[in-house]
Amino acid sequence: MLYSIISALNVQTVLIGLLVVLVVYKLRQRWKYNMPPGPFCWPLIGSYEVIQAKYLHEIFGKFTQKYGPVFTVSLGPYQTVVLNDINSVTEALVKSKADFANRPSIHSVDVLTEGGKDIAFANYTPTWKLHRKIAGKALRQYLAGNHLEKVLHDSMNKCLPLMAKEKGAFNPENYIDLMVFNILNAVCFGESVELDDPEFVNFMKMDKDATEMVGKGFVEDMFPIMYKIWTTNKYRTVIKMFDEIISLVKRKFQEHDKTFNSDNIRDFTDSLILARKEAEQEENEEMLSQLSDTHLRQTILDIFSAGIDTSRITLYFAVRYMAGLPEIQSKVQEEIDRVVGKDRLPGIKDREKLSYTEATLHEAMRLGTAAPVGVPHSTLCDTKVGGYDVPKDTMVMINHWALHHDPNYWKDVEKFDPTRFLDENGKLGMKPESWLPFSAGRRVCLGETVAKPELHLIFATIMQRFKITLPEGTDPELKLGGSGGVTMPATYEVIITDRIKT
Ligand code: HEM
């Protein structure tokens, strides 16, 4: 009895002590720094409104109206500065780029990245710079030849006939997943799979479940002490999925390592192995220590999973918009018929002539931003943005969704209008200032040069082949699905008519 009272008292004392320390820390921060304003946040828990919100970009939009485009909010214990307009984003990511180039340390992410050994979530260190350089070079080598077009055509030739068999209303997700998966699978591992391949089915299920769970966040990331005491079922499930995904990439990497031949570089994985062999020949011990199996498989996992998720979600949006906007769809198809015809698939070289098609995809990426709040950044030093102070180690989020819906930059914000991206001659014009789906600065999307031709060709090829409509009675307005930091269209069905009967 006495023991339990003492231990209860101890717990209370510790908790109160912690609370006092936190309040003092917060007051000191307020006194020392002129931080951006923001809503009331509870110590440790953060903002109640954020916890309750369905989408982060939406609640951030609400705060912007009240506090302006730069505000502070606590997400659990993470004091976060959110940037909601292009001026503040450019100031942070372009003008003061090194200051904002770090990533916050989040436990669940640390598990997936085997201790931050990847690119996307790694700290801004010389090792990160080396990996980004090597991975960028490998991707450029891949894009230099006609590899990407071949891989794309192979993937589309496999998927389109399967899709054409659909009679009546169906959900196109599986086909889009297969198109994207096979392209990234070929880029990374030189392989292609069938629609019912267990590896594909299993990976997509795990990837989607994990994306949804990560998008909603984990209580354990808010209260890291929980990892040591007790973890939720949700957290244990996602960790099991991470383990499986890591094992899959590990197996593929080991197979490549065993069969590697420097005269025949088959894919991105081979390019990374080659970079390591070159470091071995140069006896560059320092570089070699940063090119361990773990580092290389984490780089591959980044390219594979970052590429699949963003691309599939962008295409879910694009197809759904086209199904609800028959006039725009017809214009896209007229252009493709005129430039490419119906006897061959669109190729990389057609892209510059398919301006309206490209503009339509850009508009789908604006209205249906696949990474609405991007990947969180963190400050490397005390710095400034929008006239406010941002202390070292503050989490910084970019609200890409807000940039893409800012009425100061977009007329009739909610209207789907591809001509925003065209000049007076109907050609693709300069990038609109507040269009930033791939972000900017030191951590700008590494896959942008792959994603742009990849998405364009998949989209153009689907549009060339099928007229897409919504089942009778469906509201043409797109409803948003996903939650937290992940957005996608709510599950939908379409009906397709084959425009090229084969
Ligand atoms: C629609 C397609 C895509 C979109 C909208 C997109 C968007 C983004 C965004 C917003 C970031 C975070 C940038 C920042 O931290 O400020 C990012 C990072 C990244 N993306 Fe993409 N991405 C796309 C496709 C791809 C593809 C196809 C790949 C791989 C081939 C890829 C690989 C990466 C990597 C590795 C990073 C981390 C960069 C770093 O931290 O240094 N992405 N992407």
UniProtKB/TrEMBL annotation:
User: Which GO terms are recorded in the biological process aspect for this UniProt protein?
Assistant: hormone biosynthetic process; lipid biosynthetic process; progesterone metabolic process
Molecular function per GO: heme binding; iron ion binding; lipid binding; steroid 17-alpha-monooxygenase activity; steroid 21-monooxygenase activity
Instruction: State the source organism's domain of life.
Output: Eukaryota
Extract the InterPro entries matched here. Answer: Cyt_P450 (IPR001128), Cyt_P450_CS (IPR017972), Cyt_P450_E_grp-I (IPR002401), Cyt_P450_sf (IPR036396)
Keywords (alphabetical) are:
Coiled coil, Endoplasmic reticulum, Heme, Iron, Lipid-binding, Membrane, Metal-binding, Microsome, Monooxygenase, Oxidoreductase, Transmembrane, Transmembrane helix
Look up the coiled coil feature and give its residue ranges: 265-294
Gene3D superfamilies, alphabetized? Cytochrome P450
Cite the binding residues for heme.
C445
Q: In which organism is this protein found?
A: Mytilus galloprovincialis (Mediterranean mussel)
- Its protein name is Steroid 21-hydroxylase
What is the recorded membrane topology of this protein?
Answer: Peripheral membrane protein
Q: Which residues cross the membrane?
A: 6-25
What this protein needs as a cofactor is: heme
Q: Which PANTHER family match?
A: STEROID 17-ALPHA-HYDROXYLASE/17,20 LYASE, STEROID 17-ALPHA-HYDROXYLASE_17,20 LYASE
Q: Where does the record say this protein resides?
A: Endomembrane system; Endoplasmic reticulum membrane; Microsome membrane
Q: What is this organism's lineage?
A: Eukaryota, Metazoa, Spiralia, Lophotrochozoa, Mollusca
